[in-house]
Write a structure and sequence with these properties.
The complex is a heterodimer. Chain A is α+β, with helices and mostly antiparallel strands. Chain A has 6 helices and 14 strands. The chains are: A alpha+beta, B mainly beta.
């Protein structure tokens, strides 16, 4: 099932217009790499998977995205160039080697305006949704430990139906963190929910000193929707993952084997960071 | 002292919880007086942070502190500013903070991969021991758990979400992407370490030129010299059923060996276990040309479109041997071979109705067919993967020794058919990639020789015209070579991909038919094709254009044809909005049929069909036009599309079919321009109901197809109408129970010269459910009902299956139990149709059967 879906998604990636527009909105001061570990199936601890996520921090904004998403986007540019140089034969192999990600969102935080802008791709559709940053009520605990070479302080909060424990460092006076988390007086080095289904851990931090640009990337046919509509679309997409693919005219034979795969897919993909 | 204060403070908190908080507010500015936003401000008591704030865009902040300690330390920090620290009294107050610029010395970090994963350059090392738990039997179970590695349902391995490029064992590519044989059978305990080589470019010459983002996997074995493998066995009843798989393996530093022996009679198609996970070299896939094509046949029984488990009566033995030897640093030689012994039986009844104008011919046949296949396949390949060139040469051969036997009982008695249909093929594929100047050129050459000598003999125990025996011999030989160079050119407007090549093919046909009269054919043809393929694409705003222009000069000897053929294709895509897009395309293709279809004198194709032609070449030129509108609105989960296609096939042949009253058919093709149009309209709609957790899908296909032919001397326009509708409903009750129901309705109608000549309706219901009993233990239940209505007859069939699958962690055994076809439905009736026939088939199915199987490591 996943194979079918991912294969078709891949086909669509190649078919869909990859025409993106990028707007420079800031310059990157610090680039952080977090390992995001998530458990797709709450009943099976072996279903844990991980992906590298990037938090680019600028002067007054930040963006959080999957490293594979970034790679796939930039590889598409490479593929086009390679095709021009070496012909379609190599493009074939390169297209199939586009990294896959389970997270196609980019989260842009605007610090002064307290705004969170999400771009996401559901099936083949691209969305932009804007909201005011979620307000986190942090409780700071008098517990400290060293993580990733920084002395960190513990803090707890709850968000979207889960309780979290975070470690942040005042050595880095950046009120930001992975995913939507923000609002502590220092960068979040590590954060995990109390059931340990989801965790983000900092594994790399590099100075950029404004060398790179923080860009807002959006596809040409992006649709701006409300936060409520986005949440609804997200939920529908989880439950009905083949809908978007079928809409493109590819039909699945409803054989029992396929049904089993769909059942298996849903059964093993039941746990999401935002309930 | 500070501790004392904080203790007091805590006490106060408990004693005087209602006491109001102190508020510290103020501004943070830089030395120029400019507000600093986003800086961290907090107060410490002792070493602990007691309250904090983040400065706003105007630099202001507000901290509420519980009245506790008398004095606090106020700290303000911002990126690229010197930290500010100041002791203050714990009271409501206003403060002004000025931060001085300073390049913050950020402490850069990179956490080294923790054990049990090590990193060395682009390679990750996973220690197998740390990832193996009790229930892991073979290496695929461990691969599934490695961070970053995913194994898909069919066995394909992904790393960081991308399919791996190569699968090596001790650095050697033995199985050429047929790695299921290794991953499903290599015990986890035999592997010491799994290495994931990120950014692996398997072709060394491309290493510096083309950055590969794909990873490859290499298994390091526990012992340098290893003997290992796995074992699977299943038994069942009614009749006695077996399913066995033994896969031993051996590895040394210079040589590798994997063997597999598989046998079953449960209706399992073993060839699926040798699945190849590769999409490389799709362009010149020699496999499709070296497939066996039968020129003669025993009267067949086409099985319904069911899973092989339900219809295949088999006794299969498969032996696969794979061996690799390293010759030097860059070169290795590899042998992959297999032997298949397969005995397949089919039983069934067919009622064939020939639709002719004004006449009705009906043939009833009771069939029992047997197929005995012995197939040997072997390939030897040499790969040189050096830094300055890539060279690969594969020589393959295939020998199929096949016999078929068929017994037909019809109204007149019994007919024995015997077919001897072997096939021999030898092929070679060569590939060289070399840089010439700055440009990389690819040189490709593929060559094959196929030989198809077949003999059909038929015994008629009854005799009308005193023919008791017919024998058809046929020999078809084909030599083919295709050579091309490819490279790329860029213009300002288009990116052009250019291929230039030459194809030569020689074909020879010899046949002889011995009946009361004897017919024979001795023909040959030589094909020459010089071709150029230019492909271009361009994107413009919401539009995307692609053009493909193959131009070829064809010459078919002796003096048959000489012409230039173009096969242009154009496609345009227009993205109206994120919800709606349009696609339009126009394609043309040209095809010449093989000489094996161009016999001048009759060839007996099967016991009641003879065929011949007056044409010396048969050409099919197809134009197809496609248009579609696609709608997808995921917010409300509404999806749909509507597509239309018109295909016009032009050929230079018209079929004249003569059908006698006992069903004997003579098919003659004559020179006559002929057009076959097909209209196809396709609609689809789906909606997901979030609250009901239910998806409904509706789809509809309407097709009209017209063919022209002469049947029994009457020029006939045969029009087929086809309408099929599908309704599907899927509902989850919880994560433990999910059901799926679908309903299909098919109407089919055929007219000959506007006269209705047949109509049938079929309705199918399909039900599936899956229940999780306990963690890794599942129960499945499914049911199917098929009803068919034709003329005034109504036919109905139903099937039920029950299954259980479980993993027993302690003993590392996987057990599966299947009870198939609960109601013991042993025949299935269905209708199929062609241009002038309807065939009603009663096909014998596998009876109710129970099978228990288990798997473990050697």
């Amino acid at each position: 099932m996943k194979k079918v879906i991912s294969l078709l998604c891949f086909v669509f990636i190649t078919f869909c217009a990859y025409s993106q527009s990028s707007t420079v909105i800031d310059s990157i001061q610090v680039r952080c790499r977090y390992v995001f570990t998530y458990q797709q199936d709450s009943t099976d601890i072996d279903s844990k998977k991980s992906e590298d996520m990037i938090l680019d921090i600028g002067k007054h904004s930040s963006v959080f995205y999957s490293l594979n998403l970034y790679k796939a986007d930039s590889m598409w540019v490479i593929i086009k160039k390679e095709r021009e140089k070496h012909g379609p034969e190599y493009a074939m192999g390169l297209t199939s080697s586009l990294p896959r990600t389970n997270f196609e969102y980019r989260l842009y935080k605007n610090y002064p305006e307290n705004k969170l802008t999400t771009t996401d791709k559901l099936g083949i559709n691209q969305f932009i949704s804007e909201e005011s940053s979620p307000v986190f009520t942090w409780k700071i605990l008098p517990i400290q430990k060293e993580l990733a070479g920084y002395s960190c302080q513990k803090a707890t909060t709850s968000f979207a139906g889960r309780n979290y424990e975070a470690w942040f460092t005042t050595d880095l006076a950046i009120a930001d963190g992975p995913y939507k988390f923000t609002g502590l007086p220092g960068l979040i080095i590590s954060i995990a929910d109390t059931q340990n289904y989801f965790s983000f851990e900092l594994v790399e931090l590099k100075k950029q000193n404004g060398v790179g640009s923080l860009v807002f990337i959006k596809n040409k046919n992006c649709q701006t929707i409300s936060q409520k509509a986005y949440t609804q679309a997200l939920k529908s997409n989880r439950e009905n993952p083949v809908g978007t693919i079928e809409a493109q005219g590819i039909s699945f034979e409803k054989t029992s084997e396929f049904n089993k795969m769909l059942v298996e897919y849903k059964k093993t993909n039941n746990n999401y960071i935002e309930k | 002292m500070i501790k004392f204060y904080s203790l007091i403070g805590l006490l106060f908190c408990f004693i005087l919880p209602v006491k109001s908080q102190h508020i510290i507010h103020g501004h943070i500015v830089d030395t120029a007086g400019k507000a600093i936003s986003g800086s961290s401000v907090w107060v410490e008591s002792g070493k602990n942070m007691v309250a904090y704030a983040i400065s706003k865009s105007d630099g202001s902040f507000k901290i509420s502190v519980d009245p506790g300690p008398d004095s606090l330390i106020l700290v303000a920090k911002a990126l690229n500013y010197k930290p500010y620290r100041q002791a203050i009294f714990n009271q409501t107050q206003q403060v002004s903070i000025t931060l001085q610029s300073q390049v913050t010395q950020l402490k850069e970090v990179e956490i080294k991969s923790r054990n049990p994963i090590r990193r060395n350059g682009d390679t990750l090392f996973y220690s197998t021991n740390d990832f193996t738990t009790g229930k892991d039997r073979v290496i695929t179970d461990v691969l599934k758990k490695l961070p970053g590695v995913t194994v898909e349902a069919d066995g394909r391995i992904l790393y960081q979400g991308e399919a791996i490029q190569k699968f090596y064992i001790e650095g050697m590519d033995l199985l050429s992407n047929q790695y299921n044989l290794a991953t499903n059978n290599l015990p986890a305990k035999s592997v010491k370490e799994i290495q994931v080589i990120e950014r692996h470019q398997p072709i060394r010459i491309l290493d510096s030129l083309i950055r590969s983002e794909r990873a490859s996997i290499n298994l390091k074995l526990t012992n340098k010299i290893a003997k290992t493998g796995s074992f699977q066995a299943g038994v069942g009843i009614f009749p006695f059923l077996w399913d066995l798989n033994i896969t031993p393996m051996a590895f040394t530093s210079k040589q590798q060996f994997v063997a597999s022996y598989q046998t079953n009679n449960i209706g399992k198609d073993v060839s699926l276990d040798l699945k190849i996970f590769s999409i490389e070299d799709l362009q010149d896939n020699l496999n499709q040309y070296t497939q066996k094509v039968d020129l003669l046949a025993i009267q067949g029984l086409s099985p319904p479109a069911f899973d092989s488990k339900r219809i295949l009566f088999n006794k299969t033995h498969l032996l696969s041997l794979n061996y690799l030897r390293k010759l030097n640093k860059y070169t290795n030689i590899k042998i992959n071979s297999s032997y298949l012994n397969n005995h397949i039986q089919q039983k069934g009844l067919t009622d064939t109705y020939f639709i002719t104008e004004g006449d009705s011919i009906h043939v009833y046949e009771n069939k029992y067919n047997q197929q005995f296949i012995q197939e040997v396949k072997g390939s030897i390949s040499l790969t040189q993967n050096a830094p300055n060139q890539y060279l690969e040469n594969t020589l393959s051969t295939k020998i199929v020794n096949e016999k078929q036997e068929g017994i037909i009982e019809n109204n007149n008695g019994k007919i024995n058919q015997k077919l001897n249909n072997p096939f021999y093929s030898i092929s070679n594929k060569f590939k060289l990639i070399k840089p010439i100047g700055k440009q990389l050129f690819g040189f490709h050459s593929s060559t094959f020789f196929n030989k198809t000598p077949q003999i059909l003999s038929i015994n008629y125990p009854y005799s009308k015209d005193s023919i008791l025996f017919k024998r058809q011999n046929i020999l078809f030989q084909q030599f083919h070579t295709n050579n091309y160079i490819n490279f790329t050119k860029k213009t300002t407007f288009f990116v052009l991909f250019q291929t230039i090549g030459f194809l030569y093919e020689s074909q020879q046909l010899n046949s002889s038919l011995n009946t009361s009269l004897s017919y024979s054919n001795n023909q040959f043809q030589k094909w020459y094709k010089y071709y150029s393929i230019t492909e271009g694409s361009h994107e413009f705003n919401q539009f995307k254009f692609s053009i493909n222009l193959p131009v070829s000069f064809w010459k078919i000897n002796p003096h048959i044809l000489q012409r230039i053929i173009t096969e242009p294709s154009v496609s345009v895509k227009y993205q109206l909005s994120s919800i709606i897009n349009f696609k339009i395309s126009y394609r043309t293709t040209n095809l010449f049929s093989n000489l094996s279809d161009l016999n001048i004198q009759p060839v007996l194709k099967d016991y009641r069909t003879s065929q011949f032609t007056e044409l010396n070449y048969r050409q099919y030129y197809t134009h197809s036009f496609n248009a579609g509108i696609y709608y997808s609105e995921p917010i409300h989960s509404v999806f749909g599309n509507l597509t239309y296609s018109l295909t016009n096939q032009f050929s230079n042949a018209l079929l004249l079919t003569t059908i006698t009253s006992n069903g004997d058919m003579l098919v003659q093709s004559i020179k006559n321009d002929n057009r076959t149009p097909t209209h196809l309209l396709n609609g689809y709609f789906s909606k997901y109901f979030l609250k009901l957790k239910t998806t409904i899908r509706l789809s509809s296909i309407a097709q009209v197809n017209q063919t022209n032919q002469e049947i029994n001397g009457i020029y006939s326009k045969v029009i087929n109408y086809n309408l099929s509708n599908n309704f599907n409903l899927e509902k989850s009750f919880s994560n433990r129970l999910i059901i799926n129901y679908s309903f299909d309705m098919i109407h089919q109608k055929t007219t000959i010269n506007r006269l209705n000549s047949g109509l049938f309706n079929s309705k199918n219901h399909h039900f599936d459910s899956m229940i999780t009993v306990y963690k890794k233990h599942y129960l499945t239940f499914s049911g199917e009902v098929y009803t068919l209505k034709y003329a005034s007859t109504l036919n109905s069939n139903h099937f039920f299956d029950l299954g259980y699958r479980g993993f027993y962690t302690k003993r590392k055994i996987e057990i599966e139990c299947k009870w198939q076809n609960l109601t013991d439905t042993n025949t299935y009736t269905y209708l199929s149709s062609s241009n002038y026939t309807y065939i009603l088939t009663r096909y014998q199915l596998r009876p109710s059967q129970l099978l228990i199987s288990f798997r473990m490591s050697l």
